[in-house]
Amino acid sequence: MAVELVRGQNLPLPGTRLRVAVRAAEPVVVAAVLADATGRARGTDRVAHPGAPALPGVAVPAGAAARHEVAVDLEALPPGTERLAVVLVLPGGRFGAAEAPYASVEDAEGGTVAGFALSGLGEETAVVAVELYRRQGVWKVRAVGQGYAGGFGELLADQGLAPAPQVLRAVADAGRAVGGPVAGATAAGAAGEHGAVGGAAEALATGSPADESPATGAPAAGPDPGRPTEERLYRQVWGMFEDLARAVAAYRSAVDFAESRMERELERVLDDPAARIGTAAAAAREAARTRCAELVERARAVLDRDVLQLAEEADEVEPALPAALARWDSPAWSAFRAPAEAPRALRLGDLTVPEAPGLRIPMLVGLPLERGLWVDSGRGEEGAGDLAPEEADALALAVAVALVVRLTAAHPAGGPALEVVDPAGTAMPALAPLLAAGVLREPPAPGAAGVSETLERLVRRVDLVQMAVRGGAVDALPPGLDPAGLLLLVHDFPHGFDDRSITRLRYLADEGPAAGVHLLMVADREEAAGHGPLLDPLWRSLLRLTPVPEAHLADPWVGHAWTFHPLLPESGSTVLDRAARASAEARRASGR
């Protein structure tokens, strides 16, 4: 029995020889884009289009028509191909002005496996209809329905390609054959799109707490030959996050559809005065509610199936993760040694969604950090509301110290140097293990004077690095300037900060990462409210983390909230002390 997919839903495929059939109200041009596991195509020779309709493992029609069949042999695809996107381009029009196209996937015998109506399109002139992709050795189909008002050129740019004129011209010629140009597919239209490379999976860094993204630093376009296992695991974790996001989006979409249809059916009963009462009306209402419940139940079954598969995958992946990506109770930390190479990413915590609270997906941030981190010591609106202010601050500081150890220990030679701003000295008990191990070489300078001196010195450092980079004189930097970078931990902000120090801190948050100076703040935003809008740009530039589980991170595709769970060792564990000592020893051995 064929499965009717909704946007974001996926389904395992029964075999490797398939056909993707497309029906549309108007003639459309069909193309196929072959990509790696990150969704990035390696070149325009991986695009099957009317000018080059056949590639190994896939063939598309050479012209425009209202019906198409795309032949696919998944086993014959070029090496490194993990995804195949089937693309529709509409000549001389927009999809919202016509009946929604329909894509179906058929097996080798012609039986329909799944279907997907590309509804909800408007000004778009090109759309990714469905995607065939491989996960854990299993090929699946995903209903995508991602449209592009900028046309085929914009779509290709989102696949990581600077669109080649010959590809766009071939699609445009196919469109003209049915009486009109393909919108957005001319070579001239591609001129301004070369800088638009990067899709939703790489547009993750946002600002305010209500619109923060759960991961930054998307997978690169291609494997890293230096550390293939870490690269594979990183991509696998990213794929798990993406699959759960889309599975939940599909479930919520199905529930919304079921409930809206039930409401329409109930309204029709109420609109008929003769049918509002009596047994017939009651039966109609009950039938509407039953149909709604059945649809929701089917959608939930699909979600439960996907969640179960992801949970099994997570159980397999977790023990294999390297230290930078592993939980504190992982074997990677129990036998920790400083790595030979810098990690690709760092695990900040875990993510869950309400529909699957038992499934935790690692939250990763790409390295080097492109934005600062802010551990919010405010009590917030969720679990931390039961904590006293001093308890919330202590917990936030504990999370920050764990992040410091993870960041420094996961790098070779001890990673970035650590400096601390703690004007009141209240962080010293928590920082004592870092000071004893040598990760923190000197106690923070006390009071407002210490804050001012530290920030002024770091601003000069950033200015010096920027001038050296612009002048091509990086080799002339002073020998005391650590090329591995620096991590500044700011505790108890804004205590001890005047307006000048706040301006310097904002400068470091904005300009520091590019010069190797990274910011980790422990602060309660409400306590800083007296500074008014002066601090708004600072908060927006930082990625907010919480010391207790809180649903404040926005999904980058569909916008639903993820709950962030911080990572802390179990009570009594010595893993932080051991990792800090190993980090400091690696730094000393390197002569730094």
List keywords for this structure.
single chain, 592 residues, alpha+beta, 12-stranded mixed beta sheet, 5-stranded parallel beta sheet, 11 helices, 23% strand, globular
The oligomeric state of the chains shown is single chain
Largest pleated sheet:
12 strands, mixed
On the 0-100 scale, what is the average pLDDT? 82
Low-confidence stretches: 179-211, 215-227
Q: Helix fraction?
A: 25-40%
Strand content: 15-25%
Beta strands, count? 21
Radius of gyration (CA) equals 27 Å
CA-to-CA gap between the ends?
Answer: 65 Å
Q: What global shape is seen? A: globular
Give the count of helical stretches: 11
**Which structural class is indicated by helix and strand composition?**
alpha+beta
Write structural notes for this entry.
With 592 residues, the protein is of the alpha+beta class. It is 33% helix and 23% strand. It is built from 11 helices and 21 strands. The strands form 3 sheets. Strands 1, 2, 3, 4, 5, 6, 7, 8, 9, 10, 11 and 12 form a 12-stranded mixed β-sheet that branches. The chain has a 5-stranded parallel β-sheet with strand order 16-17-18-15-19, sandwiched between helices. Helix 8 (447-470) runs parallel beside helix 9. It starts with a strand and ends with a helix. Residues 179-211 and 215-227 have low confidence and may be disordered.
How would you summarize what this structure contains?
The chain is α+β, with helices and mostly antiparallel strands and 592 residues long. The chain contains 11 helices and 21 strands.
Strand and helix map with partners:
Layout: E1 3-5, E2 10-12, E3 17-35, E4 47-48, E5 54-55, E6 58-59, E7 65-73, E8 83-89, E9 102-106, E10 112-117, E11 126-135, E12 138-148, H1 151-158, H2 165-176, H3 228-271, H4 279-317, H5 331-334, E13 345-353, E14 356-366, E15 372-376, H6 389-409, E16 417-421, H7 428-437, H8 447-470, E17 486-493, H9 499-511, E18 517-523, H10 536-541, E19 542-545, E20 550-554, E21 561-566, H11 575-589
Parallel strand pairs: 1-10, 15-18, 15-19, 16-17, 17-18
Antiparallel strand pairs: 2-12, 3-4, 3-7, 3-8, 3-9, 5-6, 6-7, 8-11, 9-10, 11-12, 13-14, 13-21, 20-21
Helix pairs in contact: 3-4, 6-11, 8-9
